[in-house]
């Protein structure tokens, strides 16, 4: 489980939705507008500015043709849904779907949320990668390179500015579909197969291509992988291990194995949609996405005149410990991680107006998450706290 508390300093030109990948939950303060970025931080103490970490660059690829944070905001504002059946260029869903999911070798889920673009397309020469090596690269690696490049663009830095810097790379990922596909035919394996499909290379590839010389690692904590990556990246900056960091997450569904496994485990909704906080909640829907943010010290961002999208006020992580089942969450430990995040942030519960929830859309997970939040926020004065989850389609 993980929690992050952020505080947007100024409202950007295009409204941006600050949301983490489905992992625990993310808490934000409502943004406010000042005449200039410098004025917005002028009232903050020097200690605060020197201590805090902020987001200066963002980029994404999401279902529904979303290719930027402003696209995401527009998509949500228009109450659109990106739900669809499994695209034919991923795998033949007709060979695996059956409404009776108890049958061997089938799943009762025929869709989810998929990128509209052809994930095979990749301008490898732009990144200095030869054709043969590129053909063995997991599409998640390819899209990560594109998104990180756009993330640097959004932050206003050049590749020359970044090359050779003590910039870390933390990637959250827990899917190895492309590696599974390659392993089916041993004759297909090549000397590039190991680096093309290894999860550790997802972060290392970014460090290598852009010559980033800080820590580089890939984390797998399932749904919370990306927010765990953010937590460790923030601490690395505060501890002086690096001067900045790319924090990214990648999930592309190109093979049926993991879809079959999660469906058989009862995690996925037969409707191929997530119904968070609803009586019809019967599981979640898998979704694709490749996203990245560039974070650095707030003091450095002000000096470098970067656009500051948000300040990461506090993060916290923990584990459920012993529960009735390994996949069952603990309301107690979720409450603990929220309180710890707010303690680290130095904020009061009354300072928050909205919480973007994990929102598993399950009959067990949703009540536990709401109970944990209620334990923290129910007694606060003022207006009721609003909660929601981007994983649930509009009504």
| Main sheet characteristics | 10 strands, mixed
Q: How much helix, percentage-wise, in residues?
A: 25-40%
CATH class: Alpha Beta
Question: In oligomeric terms, what are we looking at?
Answer: single chain
Number of domains: 1
Radius of gyration over C-alpha positions, nearest whole angstrom = 21 Å
CATH fold node name: Peroxisomal Thiolase, Chain A, domain 1
Could you name the ranges where pLDDT drops below 50 across 5 or more consecutive residues? 10-36
The structural class is alpha/beta
What is the CATH-assigned architecture?
3-Layer(aba) Sandwich
Order of strands, widest sheet:
7-6-8-9-3-10-1-2-11-12
Mean pLDDT score, rounded? 89
The percentage of residues in β strands lies in 15-25%
Number of strands: 12
Secondary-structure element order, N to C: EEHHEHEEHHHEHHHEHEHEHEHEHE
Short description:
This protein is α/β, with parallel strands linked by helices. 32% of the residues lie in helices and 17% in strands. It has one domain (2-388): 3-Layer(aba) Sandwich (Peroxisomal Thiolase, Chain A, domain 1).
Question: What can you tell me about this protein's structure?
Answer:
This protein is α/β, with parallel strands linked by helices. It has a single domain (about 1-390), classed as 3-Layer(aba) Sandwich (Peroxisomal Thiolase, Chain A, domain 1), CATH 3.40.47. The protein contains 14 helices and twelve strands. α14 links the parallel β11 and β12 (about 385-390). α5 (about 140-155) packs across α9 (about 200-210). The longest helix has 17 residues, at about 140-155. It is globular. The two termini are about 30 Å apart. The relative contact order is 0.20. InterPro entries: Ketoacyl_synth_AS, Ketoacyl_synth_C, Ketoacyl_synth_N, PKS_Beta-ketoAc_synthase_dom, PKS_NRPS_Biosynth_Enz, Thiolase-like.
